[in-house]
Amino acid sequence: MSDVAVQIARRVLLPVALLFAAMVGLGLLVTRVLTHTWPFTVEDTVNREFAGDRTSGWNDVSLVFSTLASTQMIVVVTVLAALVLRLVLHRWREPIFLCAAVTAQALIFLFTTMVIDRNRPAVAHMDSSPPTSSFPSGHTSAATALYVGLALLLALRARSTPAKVAWWTLLVLVPVGVALTRMYRGMHHPSDVVASFVNGGTCVAIMARTVLDRTLTWGRAKVSPPFRPGDDVTPAGAPAGG
Predict the structure, then answer these.
(1) Nearest-CA neighbor of 193 among 47, 35, 74?
(2) For 199-223, what is each residue's pLDDT tens digit?
C-alpha cells in the first residue's frame, strides 16, 4: 500500500468510521437506553412549545433558514464556494477541504439514519418528511459542515481579530438558525440537532487536520542515496583538497 493511501486511511477513513460509530452509539442511547431519562423526557414538551408559538412571521423566517440548508442549496453553495476559493487562491487545498467536510457529514448522516429508526416529533409538520429517520438532522449537519467550514477558511485569511470574530459570528449563526428552524417546523427533536452539530463540526475538524495542515507530508519522504566507497564527501562550500 502506498504512503498516500496509508495517510488517507489513518487520517480520513479511520476518524470518519469512528465518528460514524459514535453517531450510531448516540442514536441508540437516545432512542433505546435513555428514552425515559432527563433531558430526553422533556423533548416532547419542547416540540409542543415550538409548535404552539408559530406565527406567520416566524414561519417565513424559518422557511428561509430551512431553505439555506436544503440539499439543493447545500450542493449549490458548496460547489460555488469551492470554485471561488480555487479561482481566488489558485490552489486546491481549501476547495478540497470544504467539499470533503460536506461530503463526509452527508455520508455519516445517511448511514446513521439507516441504522437508527426514530419517528418525527408528534406535532404538525410544516415540511414533507423525507424517508429517513429523525435522528440526526441532515439540514443541521450539512449547514454546520458548510458554514462552519467557510467560517474557518475566512477567519484564517482575515487580517484582524474583529474580522475573524465577524466571520465566525455571521456564519456560525446559520447552522444555529437552521437547528432552531428544524425544531420549530416540527421536523426534529432537540437531541437530533445536537447530534448533528457533533457530526458536522467533527467532520470539519477531521478535514481541517488532514487537508489544511501544511506540515503534513503525503508522499514518501525523500531519502538520500546510500554512501558508496569513492563518493566525494567534501561538504558543500568547503575547499577541495589536492
Answers:
(1) 47
(2) 999 999 999 999 998 877 665 544 4
